[in-house]
Amino acid sequence: MKKAAKVTSTGKPAPQAKSELRETIVVIIQALVIALVFRSFLYQPFSIPTASMQKSLLIGEYILASKFSYGYGRYSLPLGLIPFKGRIFGSEPKRGDIAVFRPVPQTDNYIKRVIGLPGDRVQMQGGRLYLNGTLVERELISQGTDKDSYGTELPVRLFRETLPNGINYTIQEISDTGSLDNTPEYVVPAGHYFMMGDNRDRSADSRVLQQVGYVPYDNLIGKAEVRFFSIKDNINPWLVWKWPGNVRLDRMFESVYQ
Predict the structure, then answer these.
(1) Which residues are identified as catalytic?
(2) Distance of CA 23 to the CA centre of its chain
(3) Is the residue at 68 inside a domain?
(4) Which of 29, 61, 141, 145 falls between 20 and 30 A from 35, CA-CA?
């Protein structure tokens, strides 16, 4: 049986009790520091609340993004606490990466796929993607249904799109005549990137210049690597009694590039 903490005749904790309390506080502080370092310099968790990256990333999924993949910038630290310019140990993203970033006009983090690199010309014509004047290959895979964060379901076509560097992934199209299916030609400025969602007709991305636009290199946060949790209908993960029948076990603990 564990002995009760000893107290002095004045009712104050004995020195041993003080020591135990101090050790507990030190352990808690150490744990917080380790968590902060892990989040700031190694991996940061993010949730997927919208349909813009379906079917690659579904609503209700939780992913880890590697901070070190692109180096460290202002938004690598929580809340952008250190407002410095440039990147430390920077490495440029590759076409086809799924990246977390902070759009210039926004205060929220976004996650999209890197489509255009600095100097690239990007355009949509009839729902098809053109890079530097060349049509990007896509192949029809199947028909499906897409549900957004409001529960609205629409039929979609699923295509396998292949970028010039050989990276391929699945995109969804409601139609080829949507508001962002025919655009002017975008020329990506130096030091910026052009981001697009895989759910092409349900994504506000770099095609919407006033909302997202070209993403500065300094505003990259990390590269999406792995999904570690996935649950239907964006159910809060702490509602464990709702896990049965709703947790997508087949999509957990796997790379986001599969």
Answers:
(1) 52, 112
(2) 37
(3) yes
(4) 61
